[in-house]
Specification:
Elements: E1 10-14, H1 19-30, E2 34-39, H2 42-55, E3 62-66, H3 72-80, E4 90-93, H4 110-137, E5 143-148, H5 162-181, E6 187-194, H6 200-206, H7 210-217, H8 228-239, E7 250-253
Parallel strand pairs: 1-2, 1-4, 2-3, 4-5, 5-6, 6-7
Helix pairs in contact: 1-2, 1-8, 3-4, 4-5
The protein binds nicotinamide-adenine-dinucleotide.
Organism: Zalerion maritima
Family: Belongs to the short-chain dehydrogenases/reductases (SDR) family.
Keywords: NADP, Oxidoreductase
C-alpha cells in the first residue's frame, strides 16, 4: 500500500492519458491516493493505467473510466462511480483541447469555437459541479478541485488560438468565483497555469518548424519548454492538505515566463 501526502484521498483526473494527466496519475498513486483515470480515449487510458501500475506496484486503487467531459451525464456517472469508494476528495479537471483549426477572430470556425468551449469550459464546470455534489453527499469538510487553465489566460499571444485563449480565461475566472462561493464549506478551488510544455498537445503542433519554435523559446527565462512532471508536482501540492490555506489562486508553473520583461541571453 502506497502512503504519502494523498493517503486516504479519492481522486479523479480527467485527460489522464495525456502529458500532464499521466504524470499526475503516477504521482497521485505514489502519494497514496486512490485514483480514477478518466479520458475520452479508451486505448490511451488503458495504456496509462498499465503504466501507473507498472511504475507504482504498491499503488492503492487505480481504475479507468471513459468520459467525454463535455457531456454532463457522463461526468455525473463518472463522479458517482466513486460513491462506492466513499466519494471524491480531489478532482483534477485537466482535460482540454487546442484545435488545429483554432485561429484569430476572423479565421476561427464557429464549430471549433463551440467544441473548444464545450470541452475546456463546460467540462470544467461539470467536473466542479459534480465534485461539489459528491463532497456534500459524503459530508466532507474539505475537498480540493484543481482546474487546468494556461498562461494564455494571463498573457496575450501573437500566435492566435482565440477559442482556446478565451476558454482558459473562462477557467481562471470560473475557478476564482467557485473558490470564494465554496470557501466556508472547506472546498478549495485553484487553477493551474502551465507554460508551453513538452507534451503531445503542443509538440505535435509545432513539429519541426524551427521559426515557430523560436517565437516561443525566446520568451522562456529558463530557455526551455516545461515538463509535464513539473506541473504534476504542483498539482500534488494543490491536492494535498499542505496547501490547505491556498484557495482561488492562479497557480502559475511557467519558469518565470509571465514575469519576464527581457530574458537572459
Ligand atoms: P494532451 O493532449 O497530452 O492530453 C489531453 C488529454 O485529454 C488526452 O489524453 C485526450 O484524450 C483527453 N481529452 C481530450 N478531449 C477530452 C474530452 N472531451 N473528455 C475527456 N478527455 C479528453 O494535453 P496536455 O498537454 O497534457 O494538456 C492537459 C491540459 O493542460 C489541457 O487542459 C491543456 O489545455 C493544458 N495546457 C497544456 C499546455 C501545453 O503546453 N501542453 C500548456 C498550458 C495548458
Amino acid at each position: 500500500m502506497a502512503t504519502g501526502r494523498l493517503s486516504g484521498k479519492n481522486a479523479i483526473i480527467t485527460g489522464a492519458a495525456g502529458g500532464i494527466g499521466l504524470e499526475t496519475s503516477i504521482l497521485f498513486a505514489q502519494e497514496g491516493a486512490n485514483v480514477l483515470l478518466a479520458d475520452i480515449s479508451t486505448e490511451a487510458v488503458e495504456k496509462a493505467m498499465t503504466k501507473v501500475k507498472e511504475l507504482v506496484p504498491n499503488a492503492n486503487k487505480v481504475e479507468t473510466v471513459i468520459c467525454d467531459v463535455s457531456k454532463e451525464a457522463a461526468v455525473q456517472v463518472m463522479v458517482e462511480s466513486l460513491d462506492s469508494w466513499g466519494g471524491v476528495d480531489v478532482m483534477f479537471n485537466n482535460a482540454g483541447i487546442m484545435h488545429a483549426k483554432d485561429d484569430d477572430a476572423v479565421g476561427t470556425p464557429e464549430d471549433i469555437w463551440e467544441l473548444t468551449q464545450a470541452i475546456n469550459v463546460k467540462g470544467v464546470w461539470y467536473g466542479s459541479k459534480h465534485a461539489i455534489l459528491s463532497l456534500r453527499k459524503h459530508k466532507k469538510s474539505k475537498g480540493s478541485i484543481i482546474n487546468t487553465a494556461s498562461v494564455v489566460a494571463l498573457v496575450g499571444s501573437a500566435t492566435p488560438q482565440l477559442a482556446y485563449t478565451a476558454s482558459k480565461g473562462a477557467v481562471l475566472a470560473m475557478t476564482r468565483e467557485l473558490a470564494i462561493v465554496h470557501a466556508r464549506e472547506g472546498f478549495r478551488f485553484n487553477s493551474l497555469c502551465p507554460a508551453p510544455l513538452n507534451t503531445p498537445l503542443l509538440q505535435d503542433w509545432l513539429g519541426d518548424d524551427q521559426p515557430k519554435r523560436m517565437r516561443r523559446e525566446i520568451h522562456f527565462p529558463a530557455g526551455r519548454f516545461g515538463e509535464a512532471i513539473e506541473q504534476a508536482k504542483a498539482v500534488v501540492f494543490l491536492a494535498s492538505d499542505d496547501s490547505g490555506f491556498v484557495n482561488g489562486q492562479d497557480f502559475v508553473v511557467d519558469g518565470g515566463m509571465t514575469k519576464a520583461y527581457v530574458t537572459p541571453e
